[in-house]
Amino acid sequence: MKNSLDKDYILEVNNLKKYFSMNTSFFNRNKKYLKAIDDVSFKIERGKIMALVGESGCGKSTTGKVILNLIKGTGGEVIFDKKVLFNIEKKEKVSKKEITSIRKNMQIIFQDPYGSLDPRKNINYIVSEGLIKHKLVNNKMQCEKVVKEYLNYCGINDDVLDRYPHEFSGGQRQRIGIARALVLKPKFIVCDEPTAALDVSVQSQILNLMLHLKDKFKLTYLFISHNLNVVKNFSDYIGVMYLGIIVEKGKTKDIFENPLHPYTKALISSIPKSHPLEKRERILLKGEIPTGSSIPEGCRFHTRCPYAKDICKNEAPIFKEVNREHFVCCHFV
């Protein structure tokens, strides 16, 4: 079995932060910030799927966008394929020439298949735009050939090049979005809740397609979802996020069979039972979810945690490894 030093990590995220300024007045000198992500760290092994899960607003989508530099981070470091993309504290970043090369290897599949495709452009333009920008094709004929090839990989007939997004269903649009990301032959894809807007029957089709494409093209995914049931049979590793931080991280099997953080336990208890006789007690969390602009002192979860003690209110727990590749942020684990 490989230890962590022997593993080939394609992505390393170290102490990533993103704070949004909340100042509403030019004359207000007391700056306030919404801490969307606050000291997030994880690694993804090449060819694996890491899922980030949590309730809406926990910072998982922001994490993905900061990694891709679609949003500028406030602090931290991202290393992709052994190269530092940026280290904000050291003021390091790759050159513009290098970022162009790296950009095609890091792609994103968006959540909304309706809003992520330009309604004014036809499918040929949408899928080929990246090919042309990165100069991966020599002429129009070659471009159309490549577009058709990747649409076919994603289950879309190649006679649709002149059609527009409104002519397709949600599932078909998402397949087109996947083809758009895949056509650049990336190594790593951020999947930002790619099934959230789809019917349950279509969700499974898209997930199966993504698994097939991962194996075929040797891809690595960061899969973002609020639905633990979706990632259970899809991901290799899970990071559970709450209020801008990762509170538990480990192999998917370990997270489901031995959840350690009270928040993780509550999330898993909310998954619908697969069988009427299955015994699982629902854990109901009380209280309002704090916002990133009013983070509680101590443990961020203590205002909703049924096991909270005085230490939780006053002292932030350390994120520690309790079993092999199983980390948790809790005083009592």
TrEMBL record:
Source organism phylogeny: Bacteria, Bacillati, Bacillota, Clostridia, Eubacteriales
Q: Which domain of life is it from?
A: Bacteria
What name does this protein carry? Peptide/nickel transport system ATP-binding protein/oligopeptide transport system ATP-binding protein
Under the heading SUPFAM superfamilies, the entry gives: P-loop containing nucleoside triphosphate hydrolases
Q: Does the keyword Transport apply?
A: yes
A Pfam family hit: ABC_tran
Work out whether the entry's keyword set contains Transport. Answer: yes
One function term, GO molecular function aspect: ATP binding
Looking up InterPro entries in the UniProt record yields:
AAA+_ATPase, ABC_transp_ATP-bind, ABC_transporter-like_ATP-bd, ABC_transporter-like_CS, Oligopep_ABC_C, P-loop_NTPase
